[in-house]
Design brief:
The protein has 643 residues and is of the alpha/beta class. It contains 24 helices and 21 strands. Strand 11 (234-237), helix 9 (247-262) and strand 12 form a beta-alpha-beta unit. The structure holds cobalamin and iron/sulfur cluster.
């Protein structure tokens, strides 16, 4: 029997290799393939040392290597293909996935006829390819297989497109047919395939043009149950628009039912439907009510109308997003907004203003992701006319190209925008100056963007400083490409260098004209007490500088007992949720929320990914301001906090 090795080099450890699973499951429906081939899978993280991956793959001595190619692993795949070619010249190699499809000229070599590319959905093409290899001809008749590119006698051959699979149930489930075992911590789940939009920066919609096809609901439900029974704690829904189909609400309920019964999953990630605010909020409430960690991602990408036009997102209504946010706020569901910097049509000013506007609208957390120029996207095809300038990122493992300039934003603008974002991330996403800035904007007519710009300028003037060094290093080395970079920054600001960061915020505030306002100084004390903790064992702030307005009455292991003067109570109520307003203004500020402890043995990656998740759902770690009124004491509540 010939051996097929399916290879997936993923971002995180222990993720279900879904593409490989489907390819194998579908291929095995063919009796000839079943009798001629045996399948094995090799799945590891892309940052595994290159020499180890090559050793394992060459050592596997497969006849056919089927490799999944993504932007995050393509540097490694190139090296792997070269090594296999050297060591096993007779092996057949098939590359598939969004990075290589329709890109044969970039990834195939004229002299290598044994390496081919699959252009599109893989299941049918891969099966037909394996069938072609079983035939007795010296040269397999690959020209009869739709959806392939390969070299023949020095000519690049691309066969007609393979039609999309309209009945996805033709692909057996790798979860339910025994292909996946129980050795995973993150499950990727597809309930439908395709996206009706064509956003300029995305290959998803482009890859699965327009039509959305669904897997049967019963099968999806069974797959979810399987992941729950196998104690897979993280569920990643791979659909482009979760909440778009009415059944998504029922399936979400099923996820929580499984979580209740089996204790898994406890974290759910999804990409929300763009024009279905009510359904999406309903879904997030379902998850939240069942105590699943799920936060509502609001993928705005930009607020600039020119840019929305250029990236073909003007049909995605900003009003729908505003409605989502309003609804989420009312229901006290945590949400985070995703932006991309810089998109074509966006200027430095419009980017800064966009973040300012979101803050005026009380956005909880805003994350500005870098813009990756992805193969095959509309922007990729118009890169020259859009003035796209890129730089590589991700070292020699990835093949990422980050956009650092457009016609509207110079490279200097890009860098300034990144400083601005990191400053904003340190100041606003961490709630370090929320009450103050809210007052300055609402009562004193300042603009959020000016406060953040001033903080960015302030940070850039610091000398030897760990927070500034982190930002500078990230910008210099394009570390912001790393999925954990923004989370590690939060780890630094709210844990590792917490005191330094707090001091910076204070010095920044003191250096501003508005510090003369006594109200600002009082609200600043509220912000200090309110500053969240990412871990349950980060040492509590000591507050050695005396409070002028607030009275710090007592401290508990994870709380403060404070008295807020009557004249600031309204500002406090405006800024934080308070169940009832006590007459005496005394509150226990309880910081023990849903944090996990920090463990020195945990890896930097773990801390980064944990803190990123936490800051996206910062509502889960913001302190609770609990009134400590005599009436609540009478009810027997434990209000005294020991020092
Ligand atoms: C889950 C997921 C992740 C996971 C990681 C998954 C993993 N395996 O490690 C997480 C959340 C970590 C992630 C991160 C990122 N992701 Co992502 N992610 C996805 C998502 C939602 C699902 C992937 C999936 O499993 N799909 C289901 C499988 C079955 O579909 P598929 O991968 O396309 O495979 C089919 C075909 O491509 C083909 N095929 C695939 N492999 C092979 C192999 C062979 C031999 C053959 C024949 C065919 C074949 O057949 C398959 C079945 O039809 C996709 C979007 C999507 N729905 O596909 C984006 C997607 C893969 N991600 C994308 C991107 C850009 C990223 C990031 C770089 C984003 C960023 N800006 O930081 C980061 C990685 C950053 C980093 N620093 O490392 C892009 C990739 C584009 C590209 N050219 O590679 C996608 C397509 C989304 C998009 N916006 O366009 N991602
Ligand atoms: S960004 Fe989202 S909505 Fe736009 S094409 Fe990609 S998957 Fe579809």
């Amino acid at each position: 029997m010939k051996k097929v090795l399916l290879v997936e080099l993923s971002v995180f450890e222990r993720m279900t290799p879904l593409a490989s699973g489907y390819l194998q499951a579908y291929a095995m429906t063919d009796s000839v393939i079943r009798s001629e081939y045996q399948f094995e899978r090799y799945a590891t993280v892309a940052r595994t040392p290159r020499a180890d991956v090559i050793r394992d793959l060459v050592g596997a001595a497969a006849d056919v290597y089927a490799i999944s190619c993504y932007v995050w692993n393509m540097g490694l795949v190139r090296a792997v293909v070269e090594a296999i070619r050297q060591a096993r010249p007779q092996a057949q190699i098939i590359l598939g996935g969004p990075q290589v499809m329709s890109q044969a000229q970039r990834y195939l070599t004229r002299t290598d006829e044994k390496t081919v590319i699959c252009n599109g959905e893989g299941e049918i093409t891969f099966s037909q390819y394996l069938r072609a290899l079983t035939e007795p001809q010296v040269r397999p008749r690959l020209e009869e297989v739709s959806g392939l590119s390969f070299y023949r006698d020095g000519e690049l051959v691309t066969t007609p497109k393979q039609p999309r699979i309209s009945n996805l149930n033709d692909i057996p489930s790798p979860f339910l047919t025994g292909i996946f075992d129980s050795a995973y911590s993150i499950a990727i789940l597809e309930t439908n395939r395709g996206c009706p939009y064509h956003c300029g920066f995305c290959f998803w919609g482009a890859a699965t043009n327009d039509r959305v096809y669904r897997f049967d609901e019963d099968r999806v439900r069974e797959e979810i149950k399987w992941t729950a029974k196998n104690e897979i704690l993280f569920l990643f829904i791979a659909d482009a628009n979760w909440g778009m189909l009415s059944r998504d609400v029922d399936i979400s309920r099923h996820i929580t039912d499984c979580a209740n019964e089996y204790g898994a999953p406890n974290v759910v990630y999804f990409s929300a439907a763009k024009n279905k605010p009510q359904a999406v909020t309903k879904i997030t409430s379902i998850f939240q009510d069942a105590n699943l960690i799920a936060s509502q991602p609001v993928s705005l990408q930009t607020l600039e109308p020119t840019s929305l036009d250029l990236i073909a997102r003007s049909n995605i209504k900003l009003s729908a997003f505003a409605a989502i946010q309003e609804d989420l706020r009312e229901k006290r569901i945590s949400s985070f907004i995703e932006l991309i910097w810089p998109l074509p049509g966006e200027t430095l000013e419009s980017f800064k203003r966009g973040i300012g506007t979101l803050c005026e609208n009380e956005a909880q957390t805003v994350i500005a992701y870098p813009h990756l120029l992805l193969n095959n996207t509309p922007i990729y095809h118009s890169a020259d006319t859009m003035g796209i300038v890129t730089r590589p990122a991700g070292g020699d493992v990835a093949e990422a190209r980050i956009v650092i300039g457009t016609k509207e934003a110079s490279v200097e603008d890009f860098v300034e925008g990144m400083y601005y974002f990191y400053a904003f991330h340190a100041l606003h996403n961490t709630h370090s100056l929320r009450t103050v800035s809210r007052y300055l904007v609402r009562q004193k007519g300042l603009k959020y963007q000016d406060i953040f710009s001033a903080f960015a300028d302030f940070l850039r003037r610091q000398g030897d400083d760990p927070i500034l060094s982190y930002i500078e290093r990230s910008i210099r080395d394009a570390d912001y490409y790393d999925v954990n970079n923004y989370g590690l920054f939060i780890h630094s600001v709210l844990h590792e260098h917490r005191e330094i960061a707090a001091r910076q915020v204070r010095r920044f505030a003191q250096s501003q004209d508005w510090w003369d306002d006594a109200k600002v100084r009082a609200l600043f004390e509220i912000d200090l007490v309110n500053r969240p903790y990412m871990y349950s064992n980060t040492p509590m702030d000591v507050h050695t500088e005396e409070f002028q307005a607030l009275r710090l009455l007592d401290r508990g292991p994870r709380s403060y007992l404070v008295q807020v003067p009557a004249e600031h109570l309204a500002d406090l109520a405006d800024a934080v949720h308070i169940p009832a307003m006590p007459e005496d203004g005394i509150f226990r500020v309880e910081h023990k929320r849903l944090q996990y402890p920090f463990m020195p043995t945990q890896s930097r990656d773990h801390s980064g990914s944990y803190c990123h998740g936490m800051i996206e759902k910062v509502g889960n770690v913001l302190p609770l301001w609990q009134p400590v009124s005599p009436s609540s004491e009478e009810k027997g509540l434990d209000v005294h906090v020991a020092i």
